[in-house]
Amino acid sequence: MAGGPSTSGAGAPHVPVLLRPLLKAVSPVSGTWIDGTFGAGGYARGLLEAGADRVIGIDRDPMALEMAAGWAGGYGDRLQVVQNNFANLDEVAAEHAPEGLDGVVLDLGVSSMQLDLAERGFSFMKDGPLDMRMSQEGPSAADLVNDLEEAELADIIYLYGEERASRRIAKFITRARADAPFETTLQLADLVERALGRGKPGQSHPATRTFQALRIAVNDEYGALAEGLMAAERALKPGGQLAVVSFHSIEDRMVKRFFQLRTGHSGNVNRYAPVQEAEEAAFTQNTKKGIGPDDQELEENPRSRSARLRVGIRTAKPAEDIDRAALGMPGAQAAGKNRGKRR
Prior knowledge:
There is one protein chain. The chain is of the alpha/beta class. The chain has two domains: 19-112 and 223-327, Vaccinia Virus protein VP39 (Rossmann fold), CATH 3.40.50.150; 125-220, DNA polymerase, domain 1 (Orthogonal Bundle). Helix content is 39%, strand content 12%. The protein is built from 14 helices and seven strands. The protein has helices at residues 19-26, 42-50, 62-68, 89-96, 112-116, 141-147, 150-161, 166-177, 185-196, 208-219, 221-235, 249-262, 295-300, 332-338, and strands spanning 32-35, 54-59, 79-83, 101-107, 236-246, 283-284, 308-314. It has a seven-stranded mixed sheet, sandwiched between helices. The protein is globular and about 60 Å long.
């Protein structure tokens, strides 16, 4: 959920999640920053108003650039917006900030403005085309639902949505699409509800995890996160800060694992294991625990309920690539291991 504009901006439709604790954690703010998930510009505005000399906003969604055109000019050359994927932020930095970055902010997931537009197909609350493409290019969610084999569809729903009933849902989908292809969000949401039942009052909609899984798969969000974390390591100066806001357990686990690996801590706490010499750290952290919303944040923005912020400070150690599997990124091997646990 990429952050919306700050409350200081005219006509700001959304409140950026965890903006206050983020700015506090990275204070004092100065130099050149990349907001890798620009969205409606909330973090970028917050950084500029907190003292950043310059912010480069990156977003894969062309709509974000169109929206920024009406207000970004007010910051002059202090704000530049680029259409790209934050997985490539080191390439963007090399072109626009060759001296290196003082900070990177990533706000993961789908943005509020994308969820609120039925025509983008992200939400099951409004009827629209079953799309979900952030870049508005490439295969859509409808393509996946209509074309994938049942087993592959079940794996995606299980791995990316953590939906234990993934095989049942995939079976219902493949049976239904034999009569007519899926084209709209409510068409799929109603099908999943029939497969799982309506659920108890107060519970999330039965299609929540399925829609999350398809969105992540369509946009390769976990792959982009893995690449983006390593790209930030390459682009940051010594002393530069990487701040990441995540919204569900897999994302947060990947970010946590990245910082464990890059701070020289493997995360292995087995007291019987042989003592291993600590590796030189590429990042340091002031706190190992993620920062969540306080009462004020929850009141202002209920969508922040599951948000977690993690911040690391870059050292002078040369950057290294990390195997995606080491970050706990879901994959086919995990699918086979856990297949029997689904219903």
